[in-house]
Amino acid sequence: MDYSEVRAQAKKRMNGCRVCKECNGLGCIGEIPGFGGLRTARSFIRNVESLRQYGLIMNSLAQVEEPQTEITLFGMKLSLPVMAAPVGAISLNAKMEGDAAEIEAAYDLAVAQGAAAAGTAAFCGDGGAPFMYEGSLQACKACPGRVIPTIKPREDDKIIEKAKLAAACGAPAVASDVDAATLINMRLLGQPVGPKSPESIRAVSKAVSIPFIVKGIMSAVEAKRCVAAGAGAVVVSNHGGRVLDGMAGTADVLPEIAAAVKGKTTILVDGGVRTGEDVFKMLALGADAVLIGRPVAVAAIGGGAEGVELYFNKIKGELRDAMTITGVRDVRRVPAHVMMRLT
């Protein structure tokens, strides 16, 4: 199996994604349920555009032959600073034929096993039906220490209850995508979600024995609030452009957030990352590690765990090439001067 075969199989199996040659939001505008961005998809599109506005600078005389891509995060040794982003309700968004619960469980397991085989980890999602979070927990049990379940912004006691289940299943951390407070899919399934406060973050962080990660931070002010409330990490994310139209891209806001909280908490980021070069750019902008969503979903649906492993290894190879040609030896120390803003 090669990556082109994985994509071809995914295209046959998915009705909620066209598996476009370039995943940039233009081919699925407003398609939710589905993998598209909200309304005009400007937020999805901006994620991709904001990364493209940076160009890498070669430093090919640095003689970096064996760049180091390994990091340690939440007690996990990862072969590269890239993990799967949480994609919940895959049965709804991919619009695949078959039993929804079985599709969800198979997807979560494929992502978890493929990520683990590649030496990294996976965030797994939540959704409006109970089996959607159950799939995350099952994957967590199957790959202990390699899955970070992600909970929708439900009432605090519900988040705490689900977070404790994650800890009991061997999760190294647990997350909540607080930017899903207005998510269409949750409203369609009649699930109560809403905005969270620093007090909520503090309550959950204190109640859970593993790091609590806040996903959906797009400003330095919010990042500082998360740090003050005891969050174990933040994920700079606009939910893939699926909750608000016309937002800034994650690469637009990442430098300011990194300037405010770098070294005080772990900074993760997602949004528009498609290649190892994109990963490298996010690290140069201040991230400690990167999450990738839609392409991992395509890999899992098209090739199962093998497809996911193949995709992560592809990203790792591209990242190593970027490090070699720019003269960066260690992925934990990517300086900002390895690239420049083009526009």
Account of the protein in words:
The protein is α/β, with parallel strands linked by helices and 343 residues long. Helix content is 43%, strand content 13%. It is built from twelve helices and twelve strands. The protein has helices at residues 3-13, 42-52, 90-93, 100-117, 130-142, 156-168, 184-188, 198-207, 220-228, 250-261, 276-284, 294-326; strands at 54-56, 71-73, 76-78, 82-84, 122-124, 147-151, 174-177, 212-217, 233-236, 266-269, 289-292, 339-341. The strands form three sheets. The chain has an eight-stranded parallel beta sheet. Helix 10 links the parallel strand 9 (233-236) and strand 10. Helix 9 (220-228) packs across helix 10 (250-261). The longest helix has 33 residues, at 294-326. It is globular. The mean pLDDT is 96.
> Would you identify the regions where 5 or more consecutive residues have pLDDT less than 50?
none
Strand coverage percent: 5-15%
Backbone CA Rg: 18 Å
Q: What spatial form do the alpha-carbon principal axes imply?
A: globular
Number of helices: 12
Write down the overall mean pLDDT.
96
Helix content: 40-55%
User: How many strands?
Assistant: 12
Span between termini: 39 Å
The helix/strand class is alpha/beta
Largest sheet: 8 strands, parallel
Tell me the strand order in the biggest sheet.
4-11-10-9-8-7-6-5
Elements, N to C (H/E): HHEEEEHHEHEHEHHEHEHEHEHE
